Structure formats: C-alpha cells, structure tokens
Amino acid sequence: MATGSPLTTHVLDTASGTPAVNLKISLFRKDKLGQWTDLFNGKTNSDGRLPGLLTQDTFTMGLYKVTFDTGTYFLEKGVNGFYPYVDVVFEIKDPHQHYHVPLLLSPYGYSTYRGS
C-alpha cells in the first residue's frame, strides 16, 4: 500500500472554480456505544486538501463522519450560503483500501462521491 493517509478528501468551490482554502474539517468515528469520537480537526490547504487525516494503524472498520464547516467558509468569503455544515457519513468495510471523499461545494448545493 502507498504511504500517506488511507483516507483523503479534497474540497472544490464550484461557484468560484477554485479549491476551498481554509475550510475547517472534522473527522469522527462511531464508537461501540454509538457516540461519535473526534479523530482529527484541521483546515484545507491551498489546494483544498487536508493531508494526514489518519494513519493506516488508526484506520479500522466502522462508521466514519466527515464534517465540513461550510457556513464559516462562506461567511469568511462574504457569501451567503444555505448549508451551515455538510456531514458525510460512510462505512469502511476494508481498511486496507484507500478511500477518497471529495466535496464539490457551492453556496446552495453540494455533491460528494467515493473517489479514488
């Protein structure tokens, strides 16, 4: 397996046609009691990416949630947005694979998918 995080994300602001820079992202995993455990917090870089989300040793099967703080992102750009945040919840069944969870974002809509 390649080095680096087994889970990656990339946020593109489709309204401006640029990477979403300085967008706060939080990563959670659901524990055995059904509570979300905070794993990582950070902000996207100049390319709209957030490297180092997890190491292979900490990546296990289970439910994960990525929260994108879209409200603050658009507020700081002086743009009215409709969604204060975007939660993307997904299930990892094979932690030996690489998972890419991109977000295509505009003030009034978003899209996500499992990338490569």
Descriptive notes:
The chain is mainly beta and 116 residues long. It is 6% helix and 40% strand. The chain has one helix and ten strands; from the N terminus they run E-E-E-E-E-E-H-E-E-E-E. The protein has a four-stranded mixed sheet, with no helix packed on it. The protein has a four-stranded antiparallel sheet with strand order 5-4-6-7. A two-stranded parallel ribbon has the order 1-8. The longest helix is centred in the middle third of the chain and has 7 residues, at 70-76. 23% of the residues are buried.
Shape: globular
How many helical elements? Answer: 1
Rg from Cα = 14 Å
Average pLDDT, all residues: 95
State the separation between the terminal residues, measured CA to CA: 14 Å
Query: How many strands in all?
Result: 10
Secondary-structure-based class equals mainly beta
Poorly predicted spans: none
Sketch the major β-sheet.
4 strands, mixed
Report the sheet-strand fraction: 35-45%
Helix content: under 10%
Oligomer: single chain
What is the strand arrangement across the widest sheet? 3-2-9-10
State the order of secondary-structure elements, H for helix, E for strand.
EEEEEEHEEEE
Question: SSE layout and pairings?
Answer:
Layout: E1 7-8, E2 11-13, E3 18-19, E4 24-30, E5 36-43, E6 62-68, H1 70-76, E7 86-92, E8 99-100, E9 103-106, E10 109-112
Parallel strand pairs: 1-8, 2-9
Antiparallel strand pairs: 2-3, 4-5, 4-6, 6-7, 9-10
Could you provide a short overview of the structure?
The protein has 116 residues and is mainly beta. It has one helix at 70-76, and strands spanning 7-8, 11-13, 18-19, 24-30, 36-43, 62-68, 86-92, 99-100, 103-106, 109-112. A hairpin with a 5-residue loop joins strand 4 (24-30) and strand 5.
